[in-house]
Amino acid sequence: MPKMLKITLVKSPIGYSWDQKDTVKRLGLRKLNKTVIKPDNPQIRGMVRKVRHLVKVEEIEAEE
Prior knowledge:
By secondary structure, the protein is an alpha+beta fold.
């Protein structure tokens, strides 16, 4: 079963650089405490690493 990442925005990107705001937006996070489920791949991991101070990440198993 492929792994998925559960990503929650826990801190506002206001006051951070435009590229970090853009990364949060491209992850699909629009409001505080909202969660998205994304596939666990190098591209998503890189995006999460860039904004790791703004998000909480959990690994979950994908359901079919």
